[in-house]
Structures are given as C-alpha cells and as structure tokens.
Amino acid sequence: MAGAVLPALLPALLPAHGVGNRGDLPLPFTALVVAAAAALLISFVAIGVLWREPRLRATDGWLLPSPLAGLLDARWFRGLARALAGLLTLWTLLALVVGPDSARNPVPHVVYVWLWVGLAFASMLLGPVWRVVNPLRALHAGLLRLARVSPDLAALPYRWGLWPAAVGLASFTSVELVAQENTSLGFLRLLVAGFVAVSLLGAAVFGRTWFDHADPFEVWSALLGRLSPLGRRADGRWVLRTPLHGINELRGQRGLVPTVAVMLGGTAYDGFSANLSWATFVQSSAVPSSLLKTATLLGFFGLVALTIWLASALSVRLAGEPLRRSIPFVSDIAPSLVPIAGGYVVAHYWSLWVYQGQYAWVLLTDPLGTGADLLGTADLVPDDTLIRPTLVATIQAVSIVVGHLLGVLAAHERAITVLERRAAVIGQLPLMVVMVVYTLGGLTILFTP
Q1: Distance separating alpha carbons of residues 88 and 86, to the nearest angstrom
Q2: 269-323, pLDDT tens digit by residue?
Q3: Residues 183, 19, 187, CA angle at the centre, nearest 5°?
Q4: Tens of pLDDT along 389-445?
Q5: Contact 112, 13 (CB under 8 A)
Q6: What residue intervals traverse the membrane (predicted)?
Q7: Burial class (CB in 10 A: 0-12, 13-18, 19+), 94
C-alpha cells in the first residue's frame, strides 16, 4: 500500500525536512532554550579558565588498526567506491534522459536527498568522500589520460578561492528551497546539464584545482568532512580524533566566510520557511512568492556574514587590536561556524534523509517507469522508527546545541592561537553573544509551528 500512496505525496514530502514541532519536545520549550543558553555560557566561562593554551595538535589521535588503515588507502577500495558512484550516476542519467516525468522518477531523490543530504551525512561520518568518488573529477582525469597529457594541465592559474563554490552552493540552495517545479524532469535536465558543463569547462581552464576549490559539492563535503572522527595525523597515518581537530586544521582563505554563511544561512532559512506564519504571509503578499523567498534567502546569507563580521570587529577592538585586524580575524574564526552548520544540517535534514533516503530505492528499481523491479526493492516499505516525532525533536535540539558547543570550543582554540590569551578571552565575548543568538534562533525556528 505504501508503494502506491507515497508517490502521490512526494511533492509535499520532498521540501519537508523535519517532522518535529514544539509539542514533540521531551522537555518544555522554554526549559530547553534556557538550558541551551546556560550550557553555552557555562562552557565559555569554563574554557576561559581551564583552556589557557592551544591544545589541539596535529600529532593527536588514536591510531586505526593497520588492516583498517590499509583498507582506506587501498587503490582497489577507492576504485570500487568510484565505480559504484559511476554506476549510480549512469543509472540516474538514464532515468533523467528517458525516464517518466512523474513522481515515480528517482532523479529528484538522488539529487535532493542522496547527493545533497546523504553526502553531508557521509562526509561528517567519513570525511571528504566526494573528492574520492566525484564522477566529474573521474571523467576529467580519464579524458586527460586518454589525451596523454599531465593531470595538472591548466590553461590559467586559479585565484578565486572558495568564491565560486559559495555561489554554487547558494544557487543550489535556492533551487532546492525556492525554485518552482524543481522536481520536474525538464528543470532537472537543465540543472544537471548546466552543472556538468560549468564543471568540465572550469576543469579544462583551471585544471583539477577547480574541483578542490570551486566545485560546490566537493567544498560542501570537504568542510563538513572536517567534523569526521576519521583523519590523518601529521605523519599521514589514519587516526580517530575529535571533530575539533579537523576544524582546527582549516585555515582562513578567500571565500571561506561567504561559503560558511551560505551553509548556515541556507539551513536556517529552510527551518524558517516551514513556519506557518511565513507561509501565510508569502501567500497573501502582493510580491511574487519566488522573488520574496529569494530575497529572504539572500537576507539569511547576508545576516550570517554580517553578524560574524561585526562580532569579529568588536572582538579585535576589545582585544586592543586595530580594526583592520578584523578582516583576517573573521577568516580565522569562520571555521568555528562549520560545526554549527553541521548541527543545523542534522537538525533540518534528519527525517528527510532517514525516510526519503530509503524510499529512493523503491524508485531506483524502475528508472524507466515501466513497472520493472531491477533491484528487487519495489516492495520496500521505509522504516519510520528513527523519525518518530519525539525522537526527531530530541535529535534536532541536541544537534544544534552540540554544534554550537563545538563552535565555541573551536573559536576559543583559534582565538588563543592568534591573540594573547587574556585579550583572546575578552575578545570572544561578542562571538559568544552571536553564538547564543544563533542557538536561540535555531531552536525557535525549529520548534515554532
């Protein structure tokens, strides 16, 4: 029965990233907000007293067993991962080109659920996996190999940092959250064709460094992959470590602040746009809904960037530094927003990933819409155990609070590294205020019906 009913519900289900509301919380909402703010403030005072010197070192970590470390580095294992990713890509392209333009087509699920959300969860667990399995990177490398030219071939040097990735992420976020008919086959054909064309053209002009810095999905995966417990020690050996170690290795670079602002602002807008009052306002406004939604989404991006810059400017002034130091300082502090963005991703996309990620298998078994069951998953009924309302609400609240706690710790470690200790502690006060506001805003957005 589920296989027959769910397809009709897909247009409504795809944009709905959470099933919890304020009433689902195991604690009263006010108590949760007070506890979250208290946790951040107490942690800030505690680390200011106890965390006096930089503690995160590149030599930290618990070594993985040799067989497991060897497996992660094995060429055959990485080749197998690339082959599976390539097979899924071809399977999806088949459905994109000749599949039905209906809710039975698996392409929207592959793009919006597996690629966007699944990649984020996989990266937070395993590291920057898209760099390994990116089919366009593999295609580019294969074309260069066939042409018998150096894999480092580039017509021009690349100088734009992460700015193209920020633009790409902002564009995709707009497509996912704002664009009309974003699940129609014609729209997806244009989207995929345009992305492939830009990627291959960028790689042809700037070489494979384009994928490292400009590909939005590789940058998305790489930044969230900093939260992975898997990492390499200074000597190159695989270790288990805290998420803070990966974040601490991330250094400020051109375009990092707007990229992180897009990551955080996009998930914040996602929760905000699910608010009933906002939906009512959009429907009753004389301004076209797409224009109003786009402007609001851009406003969320700008708000994150502006608040982190203002906090950094106040921080350097409180630390006795000249205001011009705020530009490099905001770039130094920007990595501390990555754990917050990761917490928002878990909070906003958990139910979508758990349920719709399973249902994608039902659609993938019949890419051409002929009634076939090529994968034997046509009768799969997604398990809803992990998306019960109270559990989802708990996961949402915990992920936001933990993400902000990690952000506080990461900001403190970076501040005492680049500033004198006493000045660093005092200078973090504006950042602490911003993170408390982010926490309260995030919880309010999630749990306000």
Answers
A1: 5
A2: 988 888 888 888 888 888 888 899 999 999 999 999 998 888 888 877 776 776 6
A3: 5
A4: 888 888 888 888 889 889 888 887 887 777 666 666 676 777 777 877 787 777 777
A5: no
A6: 28-51, 80-99, 111-130, 190-211, 297-316, 337-355, 391-411, 423-447
A7: middle
Q: At what angle do helices 389-418 and 326-333 cross, to 10 degrees?
A: 140
Q: Facing residues of 277 across strands?
A: none
Q: Give the separation between CA 207 and CA 213, rounded to whole angstroms.
A: 11
Q: Does the pLDDT value for residue 103 go beyond 70?
A: yes
Q: What is the mean pLDDT of residues 40-52?
A: 68
Q: What is the pTM of this model?
A: 0.88
